[in-house]
């Protein structure tokens, strides 16, 4: 088993054992405040699986208030990831990766993309489930801002990564946002 596979398994096991009831509202509040300060027409999110941080309700609330115009969920179709406009009333069905996704809808290129992470390191390299969907998507699509979402206890100093892995702009956890490289120059950041 490779170092990355071993670490992936350990992080997933740790997250599956976590009680996130206190962490999720804190992360959701950080995301809400950030999106109130930094307006984006379109925000990509994810359908939470395997005890991932669920931000759907806070994002849908921001959409209903007109803060965000379009929310988009990923869909794997024909072995390719795309983001599809999503309304809470839309019917979802499992895509090629087995994750609930919109059945149909307008394809969207999100300005801001929230990305689920098993772990992330100080350089913004994330650890996912190993399918490479996000890395391939980010290498072929220019997204203004990519933000990993995860509990603080899964942030590490260094992760093993390959040449094709795409670093994210930032991550958000219960203690707030951490920016990588020049990403902080493009956003307004409010401190608690």
SSE inventory with pairings:
Elements: H1 3-16, H2 23-37, E1 42-44, H3 56-64, E2 70-77, E3 80-85, E4 92-94, E5 100-102, E6 107-108, E7 112-116, E8 119-121, E9 126-127, H4 133-140, E10 145-149, E11 155-156, E12 170-173, E13 176-179
Cofactor: Mg(2+)
Enzyme class: ligase
EC number: 6.3.3.2
Describe this structure in words.
- The chain has 192 residues and is an alpha/beta fold.
- Helices cover 24% and strands 26% of the residues.
- It contains four helices and 13 strands.
- The protein has helices at 3-16, 23-37, 56-64, 133-140, and strands at residues 42-44, 70-77, 80-85, 92-94, 100-102, 107-108, 112-116, 119-121, 126-127, 145-149, 155-156, 170-173, 176-179.
- Strands 6-3-2-1-7-10-12-13 form an eight-stranded mixed β-sheet, with helices on both faces. It has a three-stranded mixed β-sheet with strand order 9-8-11. A two-stranded antiparallel sheet has the order 4-5.
């Amino acid at each position: 088993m490779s170092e990355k596979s071993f670490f992936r398994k350990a992080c997933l096991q740790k997250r599956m054992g976590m009680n996130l009831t206190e962490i999720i509202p804190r992360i959701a509040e950080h995301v809400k405040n950030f999106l109130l300060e930094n307006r984006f027409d379109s925000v990509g999110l994810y359908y939470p699986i395997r005890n991932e941080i669920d931000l759907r309700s806070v994002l849908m609330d921001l959409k209903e208030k007109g803060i965000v115009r379009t929310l988009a969920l990923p869909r794997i179709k024909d072995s390719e990831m795309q983001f599809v406009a999503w309304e809470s009333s839309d019917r979802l069905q499992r895509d090629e990766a087995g994750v609930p996704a919109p059945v149909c809808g307008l394809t969207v290129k999100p300005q801001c993309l929230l990305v689920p992470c098993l772990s992330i390191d100080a350089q913004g390299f994330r650890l996912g489930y190993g399918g490479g969907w996000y890395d391939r998507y980010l290498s072929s699509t220019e997204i203004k801002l990519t933000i990993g979402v995860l509990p603080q206890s899964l942030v590490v100093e260094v992760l093993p990564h390959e040449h094709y892995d795409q670093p994210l702009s930032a991550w958000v956890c219960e203690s707030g946002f951490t920016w990588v490289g020049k990403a902080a120059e493009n956003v307004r950041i409010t401190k608690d």
